[in-house]
Structures are given as C-alpha cells and as structure tokens.
Amino acid sequence: MSVVAPPATGLFITFEGIDGAGKSTHITALADALRHQGYAVTVTREPGGTPLAEELRACLLHTGMDALTEALLMFAARRDHLVRVIEPALLAGGVVLCDRFTDATFAYQGHGRGFDLGILRTLEGWVQTTPSGWRQPDMTLWFDVPPAVAAARLAGARAPDKFESEPQAFFERVAAGYAQRAQEAPQRIVRIDAALDVPAVWQQVQDACRQRGWLP
Ligand SMILES: Nc1ncnc2c1ncn2[C@@H]1O[C@H](COP(=O)(O)OP(=O)(O)OP(=O)(O)O)[C@@H](O)[C@H]1O
Ligand SMILES: Cc1cn([C@H]2C[C@H](O)[C@@H](COP(=O)(O)O)O2)c(=O)[nH]c1=O
Question: Which residue has its alpha carbon closest to ligand 1 atom 18?
C-alpha cells in the first residue's frame, strides 16, 4: 500500500494502557518507522511534555492528593502541553506521538480512583477546545494486557511511583476503564493485544498504521 501524506492539520496518535503494557517500547519504534517515511515526528508524554507540565508530573507521581486535585492537575498539565507543544506541531503538519492523553484520566482517575466521569467529560471539553477547534487523537493505540503480566514486566525494573504502587485491583479497574473508552470510541481506539511478545505487538502497531495509509 502506498503511504499518504499526513493531513495538513497533522496526525495525532496516542498510546494508552496500564503501567508496563509496553507503550514506550513501541512509541520509539513507531517514531523511527514514521521518520523513515519522511514524517516530522514529535514524541512526547503526559503528564509532562513542557517545563510546567513536567513540574506537575513530579507532584502527581510522588505526592498524595485527593482525586479532584489529581484530576485538575492532570488536565492543567494537559492544557499547557496541548497549546505549547501538540497544537503547534500538528498545525505545522507534523505527527505527534503522545504517551498517554485524556483516556488515561478516564481510566486512572475515573475508573481507578472512582472519580466522577461527568466532571471529567466537562474538563475534557474545556481543555481540548483550542482556537482551531476540538482536538482529539486521530488514533489511539490501546495496549491491553492483564495487570499481572504488566506487573511482572515492571517488577524490579525501577522504584515504583505513586501509581505503580497501587494494588492489582486498582489496575483491574483502570483496565476496565480503558475497555469502556474503547467501546465508546471504536473508530478511534485500536486494541492491541499487548500480552504477546514484542515482535507480535509491533506487527499489530504497524498494521493499524498501514490500514490508515500511514505506513507502507
Ligand atoms: N510485549 C512485551 N513482552 C515482554 N516484555 C515487554 C513487552 N513490551 C515491553 N516489554 C518490557 O516491559 C517493560 C515495560 O515496557 P514499557 O516501558 O514499554 O511499558 P510502558 O507501557 O511504557 O510502561 P509505563 O507506563 O509504566 O511507562 C520494559 O522492560 C520492556 O522492555
Ligand atoms: C496522563 C495520565 C497519567 N496518569 C498516570 C499513569 C501512570 O501511572 C503515570 C505516568 O507514568 P508513565 O510512566 O509516564 O506512564 O501517570 C494518570 O493517572 N492520569 C493521566 O491522565
């Protein structure tokens, strides 16, 4: 299949899944493959991606706080990231690969913490409205993996942060939250069977891009 140029408004691809699902591994691989095709690729992450959002990330990952505070800080970091990094890159016609976005807030704060989904929807509407309109990812790759498998991958790899220290039941709820988001947006969210080995997962990532004409 021939490769189509990204739309003039760029291409926004997000990576989602519980901690240890394999997102970072495949963002790097996809960035390399897309650059090889001549795309201008920005790789970024949430929470984070700007100096302010990285400061908020440090608080979010290491300081205890109530669920509303956590949700507001996630969206504050996202707004700064969206207007300073994501929108400019997309408006310049580039590809943005982002490790997590708003689906993570629904999964972690909404389903993991049990925070009000209606309030999250309101915040999503505010934060993702920019001068050029409503911004949503063009495609979201959801790395679906059983929490026990993800935990085994992360075991001993690094000191766990606040979220990674949560019990398996928390990640079961987060995983169910991702499944619900995928059901609500089947055109946008592509399920990747992330329990398979790295080559098999990479194959699924490439297939999703090929089906959209973004990779040959
Ligand atoms: N399909 C896979 N099979 C086995 N191990 C994997 C697979 N994908 C990634 N890993 C390994 O699992 C660990 C976690 O992977 P990675 O950092 O890509 O996950 P992540 O989803 O980005 O995690 P986090 O959200 O916690 O940053 C790494 O050691 C990585 O090498
Ligand atoms: C965007 C976002 C993230 N989180 C959580 C999920 C992860 O545990 C950490 C980020 O760490 P990573 O190693 O970069 O994956 O933050 C969240 O709870 N809500 C969010 O919106």
Answer: 22
Give the tens place of pLDDT for each residue, 69-121: 999 999 999 999 999 999 999 999 999 999 999 999 999 999 999 999 999 99
Q: Which residue's CA is the nearest one to ligand 1's atom 9?
A: 22
**Cα separations in angstroms, 187 against 10, 72, 212:** 18, 28, 11
- Output the pTM of the full model: 0.97
ipTM: 0.98
- 88 prior amide bond cis, ω within 30: no
Domain boundaries, the chain: 15-212
Pocket (CB within 6 angstroms of ligand 2): 19, 45-47, 61, 74, 99-100, 104-105, 108-109, 163
Architecture label for domain 15-212: 3-Layer(aba) Sandwich (3.40)
